[in-house]
Design brief:
elongated, 32 strands, 13-stranded mixed β-sheet, 15 helices, binds zinc ion, alpha+beta
């Protein structure tokens, strides 16, 4: 809500009277669907670089069964789905859809016929993790390499910031550096994803409650100590590391595995936590033995003084769960992507298994400390990396299923060292999950219904209650009289204690402006022979980072009470200042009360959601 002072006269009399009010809009589809629950807590788990086949890679190793396997012949278009055998808890969840994730300056679209008509189509023009993290974290597509800005360079509101605005705690957890692109996409703003020192500073100062990840200056990838590394290729500056380690930030700082476990076990739960694991880049992925691509997972000795992603997730939940207003938590399995870039099958399995364990820890937390009625959990990826496929797959033969036995390394082929445009899976359960399912309005001929990555960001924005935030923080009336000598005044009062909620009336959404009163007690000299004009102007209707124009909002003013016959303005849309009421020199005196019927026309392309707008009323002493 904004308050402002506007005068058009040169009067020496101090006349300051302006009020604003917030206008909230209920979901456009409210009359068609039961009102779904709004979650108190939202947990988003992202396996970076995991397509359907990376999820099944872990399933095959763990249980010898798969859930997503297909044979597709691009020449004939024949599609055959293998048996779907769920082994993971999320494979039983009610919402299971796909997700497209193209960036603004990559290929720029996903086309199911092209994607399954030529084996090579998805292999080029893919998103990077910064654009994908921004899309998931803001609901807006941007260019590769960019975090928290749109392609025009306009700063975007992130889900982390929005969660903070509604008093929820915020946590970011990853198994790669804490300021890598995916976690950064939920809180940070930087035109260059590789400005790691800048991103570290922004994240540390962002006011979030939990940060956990790798990126320690004093440890190698093998979890052994080294002399501090703050130079080229380092993740954090000396100044930022020292203020964290010395307790000069709001965070309680931890780094040893036992400290992580103490928080995860609930023995020690600080108010805010920064956990910097004792490794350079990854919890486990980069440890020695990376060249051993054909050994079984966990054959190479693990880094011992490093938490698992599962432990880090439990620690984050314990800290965030203390907030009575709830929380938003992003957990990234960051190194599935690194394994995909290196076509490293063994460690892709390891990383996906730790990600799965983290999902189980989250589900356990929900069922023990919360409930599915108050917590939403979404599991997805940001893109696929490595173009993982079955044996025999290729341009001539098309897609072949991954196969393998429990306890053995699946036989697979990799067809890229980079990211692909292949659709990735989404699983969701809990309060509000059906809203996400309803956004799956696109259809892939193999994977079925799918959302875009921006839909996930938009749905979380909606569930975080953008409109309500504006109203809660609003100051309804601001009337300021700065001169004690003034004996008369022109003032405006709005009888409003909260947002105006517009509800369906069959043809659109309708509501009523709160009673608005102009009081003019100026004498003739003070008024300089003038009357007044009361006008209004609405801002755009927004929900998160999406909007539709305020020209959809119209009002029909009417005078409720006037001693002297002030006139109501005409029916008008409110994208430009529109007159609510006017007076001339004789009708100005006394108290004039006006109301207005508000009517919102919903644009055909508007997406469902809780949109908020602001209507500013301005009172002018008139020439
Ligand atoms: Zn990624």
């Amino acid at each position: 809500m904004h308050s402002q002072v506007q005068k058009r006269t040169c009067s020496l009399i101090a006349v300051s009277a302006i009020a604003g009010l917030a206008v909230a809009m209920v979901p456009a589809t409210a009359e068609e669907a039961p009102t779904p629950g709004v979650p108190k807590n939202i947990i988003l788990l992202i396996s970076d670089g995991a397509g359907y086949n990376q999820f099944d890679l872990a399933n095959l190793y763990e249980a010898g069964v798969s859930y997503n396997q297909v044979t597709v012949d691009p020449a004939t278009g024949a599609i055959a789905h293998a048996d779907r055998t769920p082994t993971q808890i999320y494979e039983e969840w009610p919402v299971q859809v796909g997700q497209s994730h193209y960036s603004a300056n990559g290929r720029g679209f996903y086309d199911t016929d092209a994607a399954w008509g030529s084996f090579d189509w998805v292999a080029s023009g893919a998103t990077d993790s910064a654009a994908a993290g921004t899309a998931l974290g803001t609901g807006i597509k941007t260019n590769n390499g960019t975090l928290g800005f749109d392609p025009n360079g306009d700063r975007l509101l992130t889900l982390g910031e929005q969660a903070q605005a509604v008093d929820k705690a915020v946590g970011l957890v990853t198994s790669v550096p804490f300021n890598h692109a995916t976690p950064a996409g939920f809180i940070a703003h930087n035109a260059n994803r590789n400005d790691y020192h800048g991103l570290a500073t922004e994240i540390i100062d962002s006011g979030v409650d939990v940060v956990i990840g790798a990126g320690h200056p004093n440890y190698t990838d093998a979890n052994t100590s080294r002399s501090s590394h703050f130079g080229n290729g380092s993740w954090i500056s000396q100044a930022d590391f020292e203020r964290l380690a010395n307790g000069q930030t709001p965070f309680t700082y931890i780094e040893s595995k036992s400290q992580f476990e103490a928080v995860a076990n609930g023995e020690f739960v600080p108010e805010k936590l920064f956990g910097l694991a004792r490794v350079a880049e990854t919890f486990q992925y980069n440890r020695p033995g990376l060249a051993n691509n054909n050994v079984l997972p966990f054959n190479d000795p693990a880094n011992t003084d490093v938490p698992s992603l599962e432990t880090a997730s439990k620690a984050a939940l314990n800290v965030l769960g203390q907030d009575e207003d709830g929380f938003f938590l992003m957990i990234e399995g960051g190194a599935v992507d690194w394994a995909g870039h290196a076509n490293q099958t063994t460690r892709a399995v390891e990383e996906q298994l730790d990600f799965n364990n983290s999902i189980e820890a989250v589900a356990d937390w929900v069922e023990t400390n919360s409930s599915w009625d108050e917590t939403l959990v979404i599991v997805t990826a940001d893109h696929e990396t490595g173009y993982l496929a079955g044996v025999g797959a290729g341009a001539a033969t098309g897609w072949k299923p991954l196969e393998g036995n429990a306890g053995e390394l699946p036989n697979v082929t990799w067809h890229s060292g980079g990211h692909t445009n292949a659709i990735v899976p989404v699983f969701a359960k809990g309060a509000g999950s059906e809203i996400l399912a309803n956004r799956a309005t696109n259809w892939d001929k193999v994977r079925g219904a799918y959302v875009d990555n921006t839909d996930i960001g938009e749905v979380v924005f909606d569930l975080l209650g953008h409109a309500q935030t504006e109203a809660e923080n609003a100051v309804d009336i601001n009337a300021n009289f700065g001169n004690d000598a003034v004996t008369g005044a022109l003032s405006l009062a709005v009888d409003s204690t909260g947002p105006v909620v517009l509800a369906s009336n069959g043809s659109g959404l309708a509501g009523e402006l709160p009673a608005t009163t102009v009081v003019d007690t100026r004498n003739d000299a003070q008024a300089q022979g003038n009357g007044w004009t009361l006008s209004g102007l609405a801002s755009e209707f927004t929900a998160g980072n999406r909007a539709f124009a305020s020209d959809a909002l119209a009002w029909t003013p009417r005078i409720v009470a006037s001693e002297n016959g002030a006139a109501a303005g005409s029916t008008a849309t409110l994208e430009a200042p529109a007159v609510l009421a006017t007076s001339d020199r004789t009708s100005r005196v006394g108290s004039t009360s006006v109301l207005a019927d508000l009517l919102l026309t919903i644009p055909a392309d508007a997406k469902a959601g809780n949109y908020g707008s602001e209507l500013t009323l301005s009172l002018f002493a008139q020439d």
